[in-house]
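Q: My labmate handed me this sequence with no annotations at all. I'd like to see what the chain might look like in three dimensions before we decide whether it's worth expressing. Could you predict it?
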Amino acid sequence: MPARRRVDPADLRSALLVVVPWLRGETDEAPPRAVLASAVRLSARTLEQIAPGSSVEVRVPPFVAVQCIEGPRHTRGTPPNIVETDPRTWLELVVGLRSVEDDDTRRAVTASGTRASEIAHWLPLLRM
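A: Here is what I predict for the chain of 128 residues:
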């Protein structure tokens, strides 16, 4: 499989700027699906770049799943370390509007495996 093109930080910032008003509750209208998908994918792929590895799989259905964080490589079946959440919660984590340690976040994020909690070290990606 060919390597993915590196995410340009300016592209990530631009994609997040469009969704931040919705994340902050300044508007009730969710961004268009394509805009939301772009912000989720760019942010997850940025995490994949800055925390390379294959020990934790981050899933944000229906848009993306990436493997990150150095450690034992997963190759078949269900990964032993998974973090999964919805697009809004993911983006709130990415921009610093939520913390992985918050009780509300723990209810919105499914984390399994001994290494899943390491994702907290890498978030937020870009405070806004």
